[in-house]
């Protein structure tokens, strides 16, 4: 295997999962020190609740061409998702950064069922309390078939959610998948490794799950992850000695970065 692989020691690795909408940072206009932003959130620090005017806040955080919306940590919840799902203003969206919006499965259902989002390629749902049910809604959606990047990190999708995604043709075009911190075990990892729908994935992040040697071996010797270049597996259920053995047995043809321990 010609790829240069790395087994990274945790003390040397700190990944920040920064999922801002590409080409648009969504930052509100500058304000004077101590002055509140017009969306009802203070200019500094994390908001303590949803914006006073959710529709106005969402429109403020939408790019001028209406192709991208960055609502990271906005806490717009189900009300915000319903607004976007039903408004013609968002029918051309290609990028949705929705980290930390308290969407849960109910908000994910609204997203998955809206034709407004049929052109979305970048979807970040990091930290939204989404369970396997929400993952299945994404997997079964008739509208989310153009995804190229899907971030579900720090949710609760578990093995059932991972299996549902692995079986979904909605992931056929996917290039980046992040399922970090989702309580995924060997069963979920094996499903991902054997998925016929992940052959275009170049980057797969499974940081801080519960994947053991069986699941890691399945991923490293997958016959379907043929384009995988980057695989993140730090803080799973494998010790250093086993990780070193598994790394040497990797057969992924395009892998250039592997973080196991």
Description:
The structure is a single chain. With 261 residues, the protein is α/β, with parallel strands linked by helices. 27% of the residues lie in helices and 9% in strands. It has helices at 54-60, 77-86, 104-113, 132-140, 158-166, 186-193, 213-220, 240-248; strands spanning 68-70, 95-97, 122-124, 149-151, 176-178, 203-205, 230-232, 257-259. Strands 1-2-3-4-5-6-7-8 form an 8-stranded parallel sheet, with no helix packed on it.
The CATH architecture classification is Alpha-Beta Horseshoe
Q: What is the structural class?
A: alpha/beta
The 3D shape can be described as elongated
**Estimated share of beta-strand residues:** 5-15%
Largest sheet at a glance? Answer: 8 strands, parallel
Going by CATH, what is the homologous superfamily?
Answer: Ribonuclease Inhibitor
């Amino acid at each position: 295997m010609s790829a240069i692989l790395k087994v990274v020691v945790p003390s040397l690795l700190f990944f920040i999962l920064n999922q801002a909408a590409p080409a648009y940072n969504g930052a509100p206009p500058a304000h004077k020190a101590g002055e509140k932003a017009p969306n009802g959130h203070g200019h500094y620090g994390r908001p303590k609740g949803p914006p006073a005017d959710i529709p106005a806040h969402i429109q403020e955080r939408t790019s001028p061409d209406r192709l991208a919306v960055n609502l990271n940590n906005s806490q717009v919840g189900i009300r915000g998702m319903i607004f976007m799902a039903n408004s013609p203003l968002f029918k051309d969206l290609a990028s949705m950064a929705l980290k930390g919006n308290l969407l849960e499965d109910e908000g994910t259902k609204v997203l998955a069922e809206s034709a407004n989002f049929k052109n979305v390629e970048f979807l970040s749902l990091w930290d939204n309390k989404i369970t396997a049910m929400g993952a299945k809604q994404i997997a079964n959606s008739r509208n989310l078939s153009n995804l190229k990047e899907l971030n579900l990190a720090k949710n609760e999708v578990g093995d059932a959610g991972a299996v549902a995604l692995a079986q979904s043709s909605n992931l056929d075009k996917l290039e980046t998948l992040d399922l970090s911190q989702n309580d995924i075990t060997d069963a979920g990892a094996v499903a991902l490794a054997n998925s016929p729908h992940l052959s275009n994935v170049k980057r797969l992040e499974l940081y801080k799950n519960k994947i053991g040697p069986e699941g890691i071996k399945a991923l490293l010797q997958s016959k379907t992850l043929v384009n995988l270049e980057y695989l993140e597996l730090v803080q799973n259920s494998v010790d250093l000695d086993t990780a070193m053995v598994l790394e040497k047995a990797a057969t992924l043809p395009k892998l250039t970065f592997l973080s196991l321990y």
